Fold each of these.
Amino acid sequence: MSLKVVELFAGVGGFRLGLEKSDFEVIWSNQWEPSTKKQHASMVYETQFGNEGHSNEDITLVATDEIPDHDLLCGGFPCQDYSVATTLNNSKGLKGKKGVLWWSIFRILEEKKNKRPKYLFLENVDRLLKSPGTQRGRDFAVMLQSLNELGYAIEWRVINAADYGMPQKRRRVFFLGYHRSSQLYEKVKVSEKLDWILDKGTIANAFPVHHTKKFQELNLEGDLVHITKNFNPKGKSSPFLNTGIMIGGKVYTTNTESNYEGKKILLGDIIQKGRIEKQFFINETDIDKWEYLKGSKKEKRISKTGHEYYYSEGGMAFPDSLDSPSRTIITGEGGPSPSRFKHVVKTKNRLRRLTPVELERLNMFPDEHTKHENVTNAKRAFFMGNALVIGIVDQIGRSLTIKLKD
């Protein structure tokens, strides 16, 4: 029997594409972009998957009882400030800052009470483990403790997709959560924690690692307000390393390195064959601008306050090498204007930007997944800059289904 999934912050459906390759069924989804009048990502999502069970509303305004009960909650939630504040009108004295989307996940899980999903599968940028700069790791500690209070054990790993043969150097942190009512919670509880992290855990089975020697344990102490105010106030580095688990408020964390010797997909492997539209080729008159932006520089500049300083940055490959995985796609990848960060490739002795299909392939999406009559190529590039590499979701999802059958 397939596991029922709710997909939050769905974008154009990266989690869904990865999970539905194995034993999962998305029964409800939500996508809302607050900064735009037209909901382009939601349009694409509905075109690909239909509108049944899909919500295009601000998730902070969706009542929990409108969300069906489910086995797994997934989503790539935005990275924001996770701090909490005391309130007089809240019986628990805790409330996430208004508009911070992590607290929408927390609210849904909290209000599900006896019908909380047994499993969580979440994704974020890896700087979450180190933010904010004044209290390194505080945001992640708040997140872990909030899930601990709801009865979840968490395992996490920072994964660079290219380290496992995928076509893009995209580094993200992935989390799996197991509710205390699940069999996997019990397996984590009785396990040798380092063994689970390195060898026996769900993520370790999906993405094998080598161990580095550093290993740390810490306890999450106090409620969320206490952690917000007091976690690591003088620490220059975060106590959370790139891999770890948390259960019962105790954290076990270490650094790991990928252990992969299989096939590697390179940027050159995803290049489209045949005719490419003229709009993607770089105008000869703009090449000097591209070369300047991509090149190394050390320049004297003047700040708004009149202060004189030197600005320097290293050079970038121009064009991008076809013989290695691509650099990370960014949201500003689209459009013809010269840029330091956009990809440029040389094909048939001409320089050009990447097409929407090539950007989709770098995230392992099906060709033309984001094509829509009301969506521009620049917006399609924006989608891919926000998306995840679905090969990672696929492999972790398959590993989870195997674990549940053990």
Amino acid sequence: MASYESVISVLESELNAVADTFRGLAPDQWQRSTLLVPVNPELPKWTVFELAGHFDIAIGLTRMLIAGHEDAQPARDRTSFFINPRSETGPVVYGYAYTMVEGKTPADMPAVLAETFAKTVAEARAVPPSLVGPGYFAPMRVDEFVASRIVEAVVHGIDLAQALGAPYFATADGIAATAGILDDLLARRTTGSRPAGLSDDLEWILAASGRAPADDNRLPLIG
């Protein structure tokens, strides 16, 4: 397994790419709709603005884990973090994005994200990998939680690129780490391995996350 520092470095590279993309947006691009369909399809899809809000909370949860460190046994890891019923978590996640951008404007968000991302990486580097804190669903080690944030950064970076009609910008290391976690998730939730036609890691991520259609009825694994 990769070292804690290498995991942090991969996350840092992904977050830098995300931050750079948000920083370069034109005013009208913030209002573009993402392709994500809410659990309640009658609700509007996130725009790029709300997606920025989701990035803020999804990555910022790492700081909450570190600040809330406790003497507890970890109950989830980088893979099992994603084993949860979307019907229950989806509406909460959807609403958080709107909460995070309340009172802000698109012009505010590049600086907000840059601060959240920088503090997340710095604070993660300042603690040992064995630190345990609240990992949203259950106690988690910080090294496992940081690894799970790579998935968040890569998958929602795909959402950002798709909303903009732009090329995907995830790094090779970020794609490899995310694909590995999704392979493990498939093994834990179902049987067998990824379809032979999805040997390319990026194509696998797109299908496993529901960002591209797939003929395999085991997919998508995450929403």
Amino acid sequence: MTQSVPSTFLRALPKAELHLHLEGAVEPATLLELRLRHGMVDANLASCEALYRYTDFQAFLMAFKAVTEHLRTAEDYELITYRMMERLQSENVLHAEVFVSVGVCLWRSQDFAPLFEGMERGRERGRRDFGVSLLWIFDAVRQFGAEPAQRVAELAVQYRDRNVIAFGIGGDESRGAPELFRDVYAFAATHGLHRTAHAGETTSPESIWGALNLGAERLGHGLSAAQDPELLEELAHRQIPVEICITSNILTGACPKLEDHPVRRYFDQGLMLTLNTDDPAMFRTSLSREYAIAQKTFGFTEEQLRELARNSFEASFLDAERKVKMLDLFDAKAATVR
């Protein structure tokens, strides 16, 4: 992909980010710091950067898994949370809702409680130092099955009063159909959690229909909706937010060519869209750059980019009072951006 350099307007535009993975935000320099912290042999920046190279979606999943292997202690999670929030502030992100791969932590038999304490320390320091609002989404790995996903949902309920706002499923769609998680999503809804799902990233529109049937309130990626006119009408009519991740979709091969990405078509057909980075360190992107790609490649005007930015607050899982305050803050800041 050619580099799209964000304009001063795009950098200054206030934003929220709703599809961002904590582990995928670990920069190579921070990964090296973790390797040195854990006494890993032959730790150097080149070997860390090599982890972020892959040729397809399966290779990306393996790279993501390799990054998580470096996250062992509460201090590790505090560090990567704080560094992520520092990066968010540099992109003028006022609010973020961040996926944590709790399913991977449990699969590794890690004691999650101290890790979460580390994340919360990092979040609180980041809020204090950078003024960024952040909420957590606990993410289950669909190929691990329904029972492990249920344990992730139970932890989300346990920590619901500590900035955990939602439950979702990610991973390999082809190895975990939505229908397997019907009871888990019902449990999450019953206990007051919001629900999201990665859907239609690498599989057919049926995966998106399945996520809607689970009660997903937001959809990650949604690429294959372009293949189903009825689904597009449904998404537009119901205004189900779709979390668009352009660079991610190209670099994982989920969308073969940049010009084939459906973001412009979706917008023109009235879908509720937000722009996101997904795994910014692993995809060497930033939120301002995603906006620049939308502008340069797909012809979004500055007014339309303002609309997408406002969507990111509208589609958030903030409670009504906080959402109104955030929207007021957005409107006030956006009005000064030229």
Amino acid sequence: MERVGKYQIKRELGKGTRSTVYLAYDEFYGSDVAVKVYDDEGQSPAARVPRAQFLSEAALAGKLSHPHIVTILDAVVEERFSYVAMEYVHGGNLYRFTSPERLLPVADVVEIAFKCCGALDYAYRQGVVHRDIKPANILVARGTDVKVADFGAAFVRDAETTQKLRIGSPSYVAPEQIRDDPLTHQSDMYSLGVVLYELLVGRRPFYAGNMEDLLAMVLGEDPVRPSVWRPELPEELDVVVQRMLCKYPQERYPDWAELALELARIGHLSVYDQAIRDSEKFLALRPAALLTQFSDADLWELTRIGQWRRVPSQTVLLNEGKSGDSLFILARGEAKVTARGRLLNVLRAGECFGEMAYARDQAASRQATVETSTDALVVELTRSALDGLSIGCQLQLNRALLRALADRLELANVRLIPST
């Protein structure tokens, strides 16, 4: 096969029971893409991908705009086969990290699970239950940056699909799907629990010699605690994984946010030391009043471009009279703003400073000194990094800074008006 539609095939990336994934080249955009081809020829009617379902799901998946979800670029049904073109993620998938001799550091596994929570929460809020979460469907961009892929098996709320269809890999499927109970985000949560278990210890929670016995174990047996296989794992992780693998949805975490916060808490208690993980950065910025209008995608952009550091109390962050063009956000802690020795303001978590140089679009002499009054977490956003943000993210940031400047001008006016 040399071409699929407008895409020039380079090589095969992988093959499944009813589809083949190719690395291809999009000549129009001048970039590599991954093309997944579903071959309907020679398949029984039950094994074929229903075309109406294929189109509705592919169209919806293309609208899932999240930094940890693979972007669908194109979906086409032809006479002999159907295909989906998607962004090419060059780092492979998580499957290679599921053997005992190739396990990732525990901190990295927790970070990956945290990011998957955000992706699957976003998908569910768009009405999508993935139904086939497994290591092979979580792709690695770089480090712990992952992207959830293959929404072809998804249940799409309000679309012409059915929850009753037995889709998914048996080792990862939630008990309620075996029971033909309604599917929710907690069904994907169970499957992610299996993935987390496997990444932590190099084996799945349930093994059996045949399908019937495996499904019976999923329905009726409790998994062995992960720390039995890997004693150095913290007890808190045992608790999280076991709760994710509960037999009934109501026994699991009520939502993705609660699970993500628990994973982040465990991460901070483990081997992080002074390292600032992506999950900590994201959670530090999410509640900031300055960034309330930011989508998750915009917030992840801002998280990644920043230069992050922890600083102790009484650290000078900006010096009055010194030149600079960086914008800063105080992610945690407090700081005081002074000019000529006079206290002007007290900054709290979520507030920005240095915005005048950003607004002037050039390096400028700082008009005040900013010094931390508590231990703090600070992110510096340089001019060059900010210029590299997407247009949409820059627009959101500019609007946020305008609101912040307006609030500060109003506060200054109140202070200048003499009391009567």
